[in-house]
Input
Amino acid sequence: MFLQQEIPFDDWFDKENCYYYNCNDNYIFIDNIEYTEGVAFDKESFYCPSFYYAFFVIDGSLKLIVDGSVFNVGKNQFFLVMPCNKIQVIKSNAKFFIIVPRAHIVLNIYDNISIPGAFKRIAFTIVHFQLDEAQLNNILNIYLLLKREAQRPNYLHKELVVREMISIFVYQTMANVTPDKEIQHMPNSKQKTLFLNFLDLLYNEYLYQRSVEFYADKLGITAKYLSYVTKQFTNKSASIVIDNFVVFKIKVLLYEGDMSVKNISELFNFKSQSFFGRYFKRITGMSPKAFVSKYNRRLLQIEEGLL
Output
C-alpha cells in the first residue's frame, strides 16, 4: 500500500459548476466567485495525500466531512485540511475559493520562515480560523491576482511566476491568522496535549528517529497507546504519521535539488542509499530519482531556460 501515491489531481476532483485551473498538477485553483449559484460537488469525496486544501469562505457556509468528522466553515473563515485526510463536501451554499498546492512546495515555504508553535501542525490535521472581512479581502485580492495570472495564455516561466505568487499568498495568509482566532473543534484534554507534544517531538527528531517506540518512550507511554492517540486525531497509526512526515521532509529536499539523493539518505540516517530508495518508494510508489525528474525545481528552471 502506498501512503502518498502520486495520482493526478484531476482524477480526484470534479470540475463542474466552478472555475478550475490546474498548473502542472502542482497548484490547483477552484472558486465559484463568478457563479450565481453555489457549486455542487458531484464526487462523493476526494483525497490525495500530497496536497494541502485551503478553503476560504466569502459568504454562506460549507459543510464538510474530514476523515469522518463534520465541520461547518462559515463566512470570513479559513479552513486548512492538511495532507493525508479524506474530504467530503456534503453541503454548500457558499461563495468560496480554494487553493490546493502540493505539500512539498508548501513545506519548502514553511522551512524558510519562522513558524510559531501553533503552525507546526503541518500535516495530518485541520486548522480552522475566523477572519474579519478586511483580512479575508486582503487574501482574496492576492488570490484574484493568482487567478488572473492563471487565466493568461501559457507563456515562458508561467509556472515559476505562479510559484512565487503562491509564496506571497502563504505569507499573507499566515500574517492574518493567529492562535486567538483559531476555532477549536477538539476540547483540550490530556490526549490532545499528548498528540501535540508528539508532533512537536517529531518535528525536532525526524532526521534521526523513525521508531514509534522512541517517541512513545520520550512521551512516557506505550507504543500501542501512542498509536491509539494518533488515530483519534488523524485516523492513522503512529507509524504511518511518522513515515508520512519523514517523506514530506524528504520531498522538500528533492524538490529544492541542493542535495544529492545520496546526501539526503545520509542526512536522514538511512543505513544505505538502496534502503533509503526502498523506503521512499514504499511510501510514495516512486523512487527518489523518479520524483526528482518529475518535480525538481532546478530541472524546471533548466527547462524554462533560466539556468
About this structure: Residues 302-307 have pLDDT under 50 and may be disordered. The radius of gyration is 19 Å. The longest strand covers residues 53-59. The beta strands are 19-23, 27-31, 53-59, 62-66, 69-73, 77-81, 87-92, 95-101, 126-130.
